[in-house]
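job 3f2a | input accepted
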Amino acid sequence: MRILVTGGAGFIGSAVARRTVNHTPHQVLVFDKLTYAGNLASLKVIADDPRFSFVKGDICDRAAVDKALQGFRPHWIMNLAAESHVDRSIDGPAEFIHTNVVGTGVMLEAALGYWKAADAEIRDAFRFHHISTDEVFGSLGEEGLFREDTPYAPNSPYSASKAGSDHLVRAWRHTYKLPTVQTNCSNNYGPYHFPEKLIPLVILNALEGKPLPVYGRGENVRDWLHVEDHAEALLAVVERGKPGESYNIGGRAERRNLEVVHAICDFVDELSPRPGSRRDLITYVVDRPGHDLRYAIDASKIERELGWKPARSFESGLRETVQWYLANAPWWTAIRSGAYRGERLGVSV
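job 3f2a | predicted structure (349 res):
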């Protein structure tokens, strides 16, 4: 199959592109605007493969999307292009609404026109796979799990924009019969992760001897999913998922944020030792406005229907992640010296 991956130079999108080339017979076209979080270096390992190609483009640009569709003629579209950082959405929500809501609307309109005009071979196989987040469901208490039928209750500008895009996908399926599938995932971690998010930021600050910021008292709980496991799940959904269905993808690895930071400190101490403990660098900072207490995914549907389960435990995946950052300093030093220096975001309330 031919797969068009929007946002394919980002963290999750690049993992999908690498897995497609390295573990499937499919062809992949990455369509990416190359914002601050898009990085062609994350695709370097597959850049010379004849089944990989790249087009710089914006999902809000209908002409560019149409040109990519007509030139590549994909069987499947995997829509990963999005603004994704909650703190940035607090500081500048308009960009999130534009990319995540308007951009998804543009992609759906373009996909519908392309699908209706396609030949039978493409039309019969076609899927529009929209990739979303568990944050659209809001915040859990101490018990319970997000299921596919959990009511939406987004609490941040980011999650509200993703909820809007999810509803558009549902509407295009219901109204126009576009063959769509949707996934909502828990927090991802792993290699090639832009260092504004918790795990890569803590790893790099720990290596550099900088403060390790923890919101509030570190009691917020997240379910963690290794990005390579997530990429495998996404390909399973686009290959075998039932049109009109949604699938929750999680790692069954709930951890309090403080537990995550402690584990990172211990791995960095083990793998890059220095006098003292990196735990001494932990600094408690004013909490994020409207910080959801707990997310947790019930992934039993995708496990039952598609046979997918995460291959890594959180501990093995986190150790692997710390080792990757230690071994790939050129990838992240280029970012730390330019686009992002680890400054605090999301305090404009």
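job 3f2a | The chain has a mean pLDDT of 95.
job 3f2a | closed
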